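To whoever picks this up:

The parser on our side crashed when reading a file containing two proteins. I've narrowed it down to the boundary between the first structure block and the second sequence. Both blocks are reproduced below exactly, byte for byte. First block:
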Amino acid sequence: MTDLVPDLRPHAAGPDPADLVRRALLETTQRLRAAALALRGDDRRRQQALDRWFAGFAAEVRGHLELVEVGVLPRLTVAGAIDEATLDAVAADHTWADHVLGELGDALGILSFGLGEPERWVRRLATIADELHLALEAILARESRRLMPLLDELLEPTARRELDRELLRDVTVNRAPFSLSWLCELLDDDELAFVLGAAAGASRLTYRSRRRAYRRSAAAAFPDTAG
């Protein structure tokens, strides 16, 4: 895509797109844990707001894991850098994360539609939110400590830049507007300028037109922690 910046980390000054996304995912799961612990069984409005917001975030997690599966692992496999045991371990962990996302979404749906005893499901929600954070913490740590350094070592600069472009397209195009608004809310000024500078003009327009709506949805879901 010609509207992406031509030189992306780690071969040029600027943040690593994968690091930005991993950090945002973990920060968000921490926030989700806090929200689940603070949620009251009789607060249906907040339960519904959290349910609506979580649908977008669950897509972010699944989208990131899918990108690792289709963008990172095949490159490492072709280079002979990982074995079948490692691939099996990654697949198992991704399946675990997907299962936990499904359970958390089910718990929020039950609360939002009043389909179960509220206090019981609020407690269940807190337990699942904690498990989601632990799962992603382990999965993303392996990515940053083992998988990505292998890419930096094995890929030629042009191929590495193309992967960075895929990572940014995933956030700025594939699941916009939620993805771009969600990520940009967690960036500092320099990181924000980098991501928006790497986005297509249409994505930047979408971000500017939808960021207030995202902030309202996040504030409704996280009234005690929203910035």
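<<boundary where parser fails>>
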Amino acid sequence: MAQKMQLPVDTDILRIRIQKDLEAKFRFELENRAAELERTTDAFYESRRQLEIVKTAFEGNKYEHEKFVSDVRERHKTELLELSEENHSL
């Protein structure tokens, strides 16, 4: 049986070459994912900021409307009492 001659392979060089090939293959995808994550994070925080603005405006409007309804009810109550008193005096 004749043996073929094999060139000696430096396993460290081979390992580094494979590692670089793998890193290059996934680096682009990893960078894209990181950029996408950053955009999504920015959009999330902007949405939260907008939500807080809307919530603040809602609470302000809610207070104004509750005050308006309360004032109208109070005025209605006062007018009913006045009309009732006027009716009794007739």
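After patching the parser it read the second block fine. Helices lie at 11-89. The CA atoms of residues 11 and 17 lie 10 Å apart.
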